[in-house]
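Practice set, problem 2.
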Amino acid sequence: KAEETTLKALTLPLHHATPERYFRDYAYAAAVFYSNPSYSEEVINWCEEALQQAQLCNNTSGIQWVMTMLGSLYKREGELEKALELFQQSKDEAQSRGDELGVLNSLNSLVDIFLYFDTPEYADMYATEAIDIEKNMSMKNPMVSAQIYINKGRALLQLGERDSISFYVEQARGLCEKLPYNSGMVDIDLLNGICMTESDDEALNSGIENLQRVTKQGTAANRAKAYHQLARTYLKHDRDETAEKTAAESLRQSERQIRCESEGTSGAGYPPAGRWNQSGQCGPLSAASVPAGGDHFRLHAAGSDRSLRADHLQGAAEKYSGPAP
């Protein structure tokens, strides 16, 4: 209904047109259709038009959020340098307006893109910056704050610094207790499950329990990631038959997520499954743990492509942010 009403509104003549009103209408239309992949091109155009109108405005707000939205769309399209530049601009714009929540939103987007493309040094740098800001905020958004600590833990996992993860997990847990499961706690269970199943045998059963909870309560994207890690765990402990069945379920959940995104239903915007390997980085399961044929080939191809994109992204990051510490 919101989409139908928005499209109708865009066809109506705008009396007393001003850049502020054009910015409002284009930004709102982009937000309404953001999760509908059938309108990706239109949403990109609306965001770009909104930002052009913003340059003509004497007084408007929300520019930084439109920048982040457009950056996320470019990220989906594989335009990494454009996405990175917009996330940086969004952060700068939010800082200039004293919008701490906007700054954190931009930093979370920066962390996520670096984690996704296996550049954890930059992800950790931005996560640390976000935590420093969040600590001093008087008015906090529990969902945004929780994601900051979860992202810090994910960065440490990719860096192989597992000993410090539990502190950030507990910080996030306290913020997620009153939120819906898929608004934070699912990420904690995933992070805990991956960390525990890749650590020592004493934590193995607890890690499996965390991942199994995700397979029962998470979205299709999160279930796929949990099944993927479970398959790796079973394979490592010579439970090959269980690993094959679990890997097959991971692929089914991935396909379901792809269908959801193509139909514009739940789960749009989540990264694809199969991101994590034993060091917390992207990579497919071994040949013994996935069905033979095209699906296995696609997993390998995706891993290779992401490695090349990670190199490109690191070069772009150094251009905008300098070398990571």
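Problem 2, part (b): a different protein.
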Amino acid sequence: KSIIAENSFKQLFPEKVKFLGGASFGQDIDIHSFAGNVKAEVGEISPIALNDMPDFLDDPDVCLDLANPAFFVKVTMTRPLPADARTAISLKSMYEDGSSVDKSTGEITIPGGKTEVLFCVADHLEGIDVPQEYASLAQDMVHVKVDSLNKLLMRLPDEIEVDVEDIAMDIENLSIPYENKILVDYMVYTPLEFGPSFKLVYQGTEEGLSEDMEDYCKLDAKGIRIEAVAETNFPLDLTLSLDVQDRKGKSLKGEYVSVNDLVVPGHKSSSETCSYPVQLELKPVSGHTISEALERMDKFHYKAVATSEAHGKLYEDSYIKLTNIKITLLGGVSYDAN
């Protein structure tokens, strides 16, 4: 939540005053009211900074297909507006590579006669919970429909630029002097619901394994099998890939070893907890031995990809836990003690 703009309607006068008919004036003219169009300029607005987000969300392969994000905008005035006011809000997601995605509300109306108005900018209202800070205004909340607002967050942007157009009013009879401070603040709401394109990616590298492999290089076997039991209520299907690399980061997969992916199916209800046996095998390719791969091995690059083919929901208590981990050397084993 943040304040994005504060402005005042102050000294509101028409650009021109036109008198019709003939007369002479022997003293100053005092203007007590007028009718006309008035605009208030909205000052520069600080962009939305997405701080304290998990590092893995910056991965270029991540797709945040959030089902229905919402942008709540609260407008507070020190006194009711004398007439309906018009404005528009534009949002633009900015990315490090220079690309951007933008969405606009089109013209929206701030009703006259009120001191507080809450707008909900969203594709639809189904499933949206009004933040507690705005609960008192929920009953009269104005829905501003913007199709496919989730496109702003398909990738995690560096920031979201916010622009509010000049606030305009058509006034029939306004007593002057007139002053009204207008305060605008916002809150971005992203429910933990996702669409079929949603994809989380977490990857990293474990380095310096060559020193630990010195004794194992003397072993010769048909392969290495890692077995475990995956306990989960995570609603997304998870695929864990492992790449074996040498000191320079060159992959040994395909040339020296083959490694299968580890797959854990997802569940759609947080009340369900299921267990699956999972297995990952590292085997030498034809013409090589497992000891040759271990001699060259220095890094493990792992990549976990969570996906779903349907709409779903993440839960605060979602988890995946691997238990009963067992490592087995496959086939006949020989050890070179030299």
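Answer key, part (b): The two ends are 66 Å apart (CA to CA). DSSP finds one helix and 23 strands in the chain.
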